[in-house]
Amino acid sequence: QVQLVESGGGLVQAGGSLRLSCVASGSFFSINGMGWYRQSPGKQRELVATITRGGSTNYADSVKGRFTISRDNAKNTVYLQMNSLKPDDTGVYYCNAEGSLLAPFFKPFGSWGQGTQVTVSS
Q1: If residue 23 lies in a helix (H) or strand (E), which one and from where to where?
Q2: What is the C-alpha to C-alpha distance for residues 48 and 28, in angstroms, rounded to an integer?
């Protein structure tokens, strides 16, 4: 019912930058929280950054000062600007969105994208 499609991943050298995008589509009433998570080989999926509909943000300590999350509510899109990338930032980055489906029940939903690979070489 709600699809998320990420883009913008790739291969970059340490110190470089990438910008990830995630667009939500489908039948929903509203999207409240959106966020980015990542999973590195052999590790559990971890939170990178989240943003509320009103623009309040939260970051993992490891990315504070380097990554910036933003969103365009009119476009149902969330972005992740990643600067000063490190090899430890390598992983599959997943977009997440939570909100409400259509009337009459406004059932809550939570959806994940398929992931986009980010590889940072040393």
Answers
A1: strand 18-26
A2: 25
Average of per-residue pLDDT values in the chain = 96
* pLDDT confidence tier of residue 1, bands split at 50, 70 and 90: confident
Cα–Cα separations (whole angstroms), residue 39 to 25, 90, 105, 107 = 24, 8, 34, 28
| The two three-digit tokens of residue 54, written as one number | 């009103």
> To which residue do tokens 């623009």 refer?
55
10-13 and 77-82 strand pairing: unpaired
b/e 88-106 (16+ beta carbons within 10 angstroms → b): ebbbbbbbbbbbebeeeee
pLDDT class of 7 with cuts at 50, 70, 90: very high
DSSP calls for 52-68? -TT--EEE-GGGTTTEE
Q: What is the mean pLDDT of residues 57-84?
A: 98
